[in-house]
Amino acid sequence: MNHKSSGASPDHAPAGAEYSRYGGPVPGSGGGRKITRRQFLTRGAAAVFGAGLLAGGYVWQGEPNWLDITRMELPLPDLPSAFSGTRLVHFSDVHLGFNKDAGDLARLTKHIKEAQPDIICFTGDIVDSDAEDLTDSAALLAELQAPLGKYAIFGNHDYKNTELLGRLFQSAGFTVLRNQSFLIRQGGAVMAVAGLDDLLQSTPDPVAALKDVPEGTFTLLLMHEPDYADTAEGYPVHLQLSGHSHGGQIRLPFVGAPYTPYGSLKYISGLYYTAKKLPVYVNRGFGETYMPFRLLCRPELTILTLRRG
Predict the structure, then answer these.
(1) How many CB atoms lie within 10 A of CB 24?
(2) N or C: which end of the chain has fewer CB within 10 A?
(3) pLDDT value at position 14?
(4) Residue closest to 148 by CA, chosen among 114, 188, 117
(5) Residue 275's CB: how many other CB atoms inside 10 A?
(6) How far apart are CA 177 and CA 154, in angstroms?
(7) 288-309, pLDDT tens digit by residue?
């Protein structure tokens, strides 16, 4: 009596396949299933589409919500000894009403509180367009505490209703500086915080801003557009804080930011020094505008410890 193997018969095998004693194809012998060109293209397209979804989700929902907290010690030779060690928290460009709301600002203010700042500075664009978008968030800003004060300026997106924004900021305990300055006294020393109007929507006037600052006073300048530092270095200021650039929002490897707005073409992100050695720090901003995306350019909260250098 003849017994047939229970495995697959070589009679039904693809051409060129070799079989083991158990009837299965020998690995690498050509007996595996071949993928068709259509299947290959379909799977390739699915892989590209899937990668696009992941990348799109990251630049839309991932990185815009991934806060980068930058901590830096900044030596300043003209800083009075009484202010050495001052912890300054700098934030900018929240753009409430576009891709950020009160819930997002609550996350940011939580981190500001944890930093235990001595002074808080905001450098413009609290809303993207409508001043009313700050109404629900003013109470969050009011919760912030800083013994040396909270200071704010307007950015180019804030000029639709500066009167309302000014009232909301003041209700939150911020001093709004529009070509003005404020003197801080500590340990027998004086430091000035000066703030300028926006370059694109108004007229910055450093002469007016500094007219009440005593000669020789260390002066911190708040100016929305960072490139203004090349003008500010001609005045008696010692540090400029700015925003506006968003760091470009989209940065490419080996290229950097393909686009930054006018006023931030030269100074884009981080710490720079002008030709006359004026330090200018550019915060990448918390929010987004025009596009709700970020790539290789996380939103930023800056914590500067000022040192007498």
Answers:
(1) 13
(2) N
(3) 46
(4) 117
(5) 8
(6) 8
(7) 999 999 999 999 999 999 999 8
Average pLDDT score over the chain: 88
| 214: its two tokens | 């005593």
pTM: 0.83
- Overall residue count recorded for the chain in this entry: 309
Contact 122, 89 (CB under 8 A): no
Alpha helix positions (H), 116-263: 138-142, 162-171, 206-210, 229-232
**Average pLDDT estimate for 125-143:** 98
196, 205 in Cβ contact below 8 A? yes
Pull the structure tokens for residue 212: 């009440």
CA nearest 261: which of 248, 279, 278, 276? 248
Residue 35's pLDDT band (cuts 50, 70, 90):
low
Contact 182, 175 (CB under 8 A): yes
Residue whose C-alpha is closest to residue 282's, from 237, 248, 256: 248
The percentage of the chain sitting over the pLDDT mark of 70, rounded to a whole number, equals 82
Whether 257 contacts 118, CB under 8 Å: no
Q: Is residue 153 a contact partner of residue 196, using CB atoms and an 8 Å limit?
A: yes
Residue reference for tokens 């013994």: 147
DSSP, res 232: H
d(CA 276, CA 261): 24
Task: Residue 218: count other Cβ atoms within 10 Å of its Cβ.
Answer: 22
